[in-house]
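# step 3/5: fold
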Amino acid sequence: MDRASVNMNSTDPLANEAGNAANQQTVPHRTRIKLCGLSKPEDVAHAIELGADAIGLVFYPPSPRSVSIAQAVELVHDVPPFVSVVGLFVNATPDWIREVVSNVSLTLLQFHGDETPDQCETLAGVAGLPWLRALRVAADTQPADLVKSALNYSAASGFLFDTHVDGYGGGGKVFDWSLIPAELARRAVLSGGLNAQNVSDAIHRVRPYAVDVSSGIEVPGAKGVKDHARMAAFVRALRAADVE
């Protein structure tokens, strides 16, 4: 083969790299996992061992999953880098937010009450942290309602979609996932009645950025008491759904 033939058949390295990339199979989406309502060090340790992206701590005293500041300090003590610690608050005062974040190393705030957009931004400013807004989906909720709420809370880092129940979250009930507009799915944290049996269907239908589970990884009928076998089963089912 002469030099001319070599030159004609040689390719630009960048073009070759682009061609290889185009031929590669698309990397599957990895749905992020938040295991919420943890209240014991062994539950946090197990969540981390399972590869959870985030753990959720509830700072709403009326909740059976609520933790004190002293408990929370112990729970986050051994959380490794790149695992987020999310603090869930319901209609909290600035003083309560300040007290919690002054003692507990949180990564993100989750507002799950009746906070207005301005209140969310004010509370997040007190904490100096980004925040999620929980949007509760009722039987009469329409996709347009969720789009409107997302626009109103546009400063949020994302939106947690949960089932509207009496009280604030943790009802273990599923809502109609088809109500979530496709344009919001990439910022969606899907919650509400998820468990190892239905999370695969949820992933395939919604393709959310993340999921949030609490009651679905608990001992049946025992709010706040996590079941390690159910935690593991949930994570396995979600990971399997990601590659299907």
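# step 4/5: annotate
The longest helix spans residues 228-242.
# step 5/5: archive (pending)
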